[in-house]
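Weekly modeling sync, notes
Attendees: AB, CL, MP (scribe)

Item 1: holo prediction request
CL wants a bound-state model with magnesium ion before deciding which constructs to order. AB pointed out that an apo prediction alone won't tell us much about the pocket. Agreed to run with the ligand included and paste results into these notes for async review.

Input as submitted:
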Amino acid sequence: MGCSCGHCHDHDHEHHHEEENHENSCGCGCGHEHGEAQEGKEMLIRLAIGAALLLAGLFLPVGKWVSLGLMLLSLLAAGLPVFKKAFRNLIRGHMLDEMFLMAAASIGAFCIGEYFEGVMVMLLYTIGEYFQDRAVDKSRKSIVDAMDLRPETARIEKGGEWTEISPDEVQPGDILLVRPGEKIPLDGIVVEGESTLDTVALTGESMPREIRTGEHVISGCLNMQKALKIRATETYENSTVARILELAENAASRKARSDLLITRFARIYTPAVVLLALLCAVIPPVFFGGSWQEWIHTALTFLVISCPCALVISVPLTFFSGIGACSRRGILVKGANFLEALAQTEIAVFDKTGTLTEGKFSVTGIYPQNNMDENALLLLAASAEGWSNHPIAQSLREKFTPDMLLPLTEAEEIPGHGVIARVDGKRILAGNEKLMDRETIALEKAAHPGTCLHIAQDGKYMGCILLGDLPKAGAGEALEELKKTGVKQIVMLTGDGENAARAAAAQLGVSRYHAGLLPDGKVNRLEALLKEKSEKGALIFIGDGVNDAPVLSRADVGVAMGALGSDAAIEAADVVLMDDDPRKLPRAIAIARKTRLIVWQNILFSLGVKGVVMILGFFQLVPLWLAVFADVGVCFLAILNALRNR
Ligand code: ADP
Ligand code: MG
């Protein structure tokens, strides 16, 4: 294989596991919504037929053989799918799962003449499955519903009248009317009206945003003040809401490690249990003169008890509800594995600009040379940055209206350096010292406090613009909280110069920072930091998604913030903070920790109960059907516990 990424192997497991789950119809909540209602109905019908046949077999005054036949039919009616799946898994080589355990137990019971018990095992198991499926289904729906994002209808203009249709029938280009108090159903551009939008459903916080004609709006926001007419720019499918919901729903099917742990555990556990059951059936009768009938019965009870369904169901559900809890607070977690990694955070690495600082640069000084005047230098720089989406570029452009900018015909952005552009036919460089060095432009080095944007025109140095950026509100607080939750190291990486980095670090209380890094320099730093953490700990990187995709993907968990409206960040990261509030990070970690706690509670609880019932079973103190009942009970408690995580 030769791959050292440490994931490939796990992916193997993932697929495997998923397939097994599907076969088991384990109701694990891992994304099998298709035909679930249908399946449920079938299950009910089979149950009814099975129960009727059982009663007939027990009470009808027919001969012994006919009644045995009825019982057998009843067993088949209730358990046919179980037998089928057990058989199929046997042939495929992964034989020893819960299907196998149930099939073996009920057939075994028939073999020793315990027909009633044999049928009851299967009936109870199927009833349990039915209710578990329902419970899991319901919980998943309530988790997704609680995100409160999905728009019910969209109002479009048809023949001079407004008609309400389903959002997925809207075509790009259609004009929508959104009244105050309604959610914006699709992404689009405001063509008429102005209002305030509330992003609470997307970000978890009420953040009113002023919106005017011509501006882009995102689906899922709540229109607060006045009616807006919006031209849809995307289909519903491609709109922000649908993409977020899809992410959240798919996230649950990416397995976390504790989940895989259970699959691995089952591979040892089930064969071990089967072996124990065999020994239990054979040894006492052969060596100690026990009754075969009695000990085979004990062995079967033992098999039934050993079923690990509570774990198979509750662990994925716990992760799913954890992911839902995050979503409701505007934190998208793209997989259970990332939620698990968040809980183990040891090192948190932050990008500076736009992540810990506002990324809104104010001009604090202009130092033109070559007889240029201050305003002309600023205009030249803003024009050269016309196509860049770097925070520096955006801040500069805000000083001018679009029609004031000089014509830009060519622009190349060099990450970590700046831009090389053709403005008004002249070759303009706008960037840091590195860019000037690269292009061999001579400049006097002055130690300005802040970020220096140097500008050159056709090979001549034209001066510099000094930019100041403030720490984000809440950034210091977020770092404080992270330290409190036990994050051992906080590191700031930046492509900005030493001066600006030192100032920001001091204001934020970050003791460790590395400045002047190019994107690949950031990756190298991150790799060095990865070696500093312990085996189990996780390193998370938090960036704003502007030219830090390589670092995002290299970290154990890549967190992008300020995703409202930025597709790139949503794609590249493992965890997405919908707004750019760094305080969401400690919150996400807290939810992740709670999720982990509940998972372990469920694991210990169900194994504990299992152990006790197994011992009771060994001393023949529990009948077979009660063993099944205990299993279903444990399972429900585990599900309830999983849902505490909201
Ligand atoms: P950070 O690590 O702080 O987020 P970046 O990697 O985005 O910073 O950029 C590092 C440095 O490269 C910036 O501080 C700036 O000096 C320079 N730079 C990058 N892109 C641009 C740009 N479009 N215009 C001017 N300077 C830029
Ligand atoms: Mg950046």
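Recorded for review: The radius of gyration is 32 Å.
Action items: CL to compare against the apo run; MP to circulate these notes.
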